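pinned: reference chain
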Amino acid sequence: AERHRAVVGRVPVGSEGGVDIGVVELLDGEEAADVAFKFGRKHELPGNAVADIRRALCQQGPEVVCTREKAIVARSKVLHEDGSPVKEDLLIWEGDGAVADVAFSFVERHGLSVPVYHRLTNRICDSFDWLTDRCAWRTRAVQSVPVTQAGG
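pinned: its structure tokens
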């Protein structure tokens, strides 16, 4: 039997030109930041519009889950090399940098191997198309060095 959750928040969204984009609906138990982010991604809204939607959802009432300002944009189960699960999921947060860097920090924190790191990075980048800009490279940045022109 499929269970239906109640709508606990509803925010109409329009563009600057007055065109109706749609209505964001927040269901019981959903996090406002995640719902606002998904709506913003779907409609290619700028970050400030997404933040406005999140704030409007959070003002809908006490039953709205509004515990954070940033969305979880991707979540992945992680396995040790022997196939046993790591207790914590890898979370990619709104505003995080390159997936490779986030995955490396996770792997390092949990004492996992380099092959696990590569599998994890590839799986996330291949599974979540909206992370394309964060998957331009699939190995972590070791060092960033500023480059200037000769003589300046």
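why pinned: DSSP finds four helices and four strands in the chain. Helices lie at 32-42, 47-58, 99-109, 114-127.
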